[in-house]
Amino acid sequence: MWNDQSAVGGGFFNSPGQFGNVNTPNQAQKGGRRASRTAPIVIRQALHCGDDGVKIWGTEIQIVSIVARVRNIRVQSTKITYTVQDITGRMRAVLWLDQEAGDEDDAATPKVQVDDYIQVYGNVKTNKGKKVLMAFKIMPITDVNAITFHYLHCIHTKVKMEEDSKKEKVVNNNPTFANALPSNSMVGMTDSTASVNGLNPRQMMVFNLIRASTLEQGISKQDMYTSLKDRMPQMEFEKILEWMCGEGHIYSTIDEEHFRATDAF
After folding, report:
1. Which residues make beta-bridge pairs with 90?
2. Over the stretch 72-92, which tens digit does the pLDDT of each residue have?
3. Which residues form the OB domain (predicted)?
């Protein structure tokens, strides 16, 4: 069980600023399977991962999502360094600033303060022997239910990847069984279709447009809707974009009008 040194007194549901005891995923184990695009983790998993990055049941996680409380903010000319803490540990998250945006354009700077809860998307790197989260998106959390959901999502991800790992092991260790599987079987698959499981066909239309873009800044919202306006109303299109950003499937780049898929990393 993990101790939250920031929590005093009652459980999470008694106070929006505290956590109760939550059973979350075990430390990732090593393996050699393909990389998953994105997954929620707790800070302990980032602190204890190897130099090759975060893994959950042998699956490499390219983009991680962490929900934590801001304990310190250090603003410099080229970057903002946040010290963040959840119930499992504390680490630094670094957000590099866009130098071409100009001194007065702070639209990309997260509006967060010390003691706020935030959700961070980024890559775990090793800097001078310490793990650092190199962030590309930081969002303030305004609903305390999002904190609880994050831990539940961590548990679900760990259990699902454990199940997939065991299925893949059975297939790999039993060629006869593997050959007997129908051609459309999903058992043991880790391809791009399985990794975006959970997207419905209309969400996939939007996601595939974003993923197909080869531009550094991604594809613009206007270009996407021009291609999709005969297939879905604009309100539905906007809701799909917002949902996929929140789930970590996509992220905004040079502004809030351009998007890339997380698997573009």
Report:
1. 85
2. 999 998 999 999 999 999 999
3. 64-141
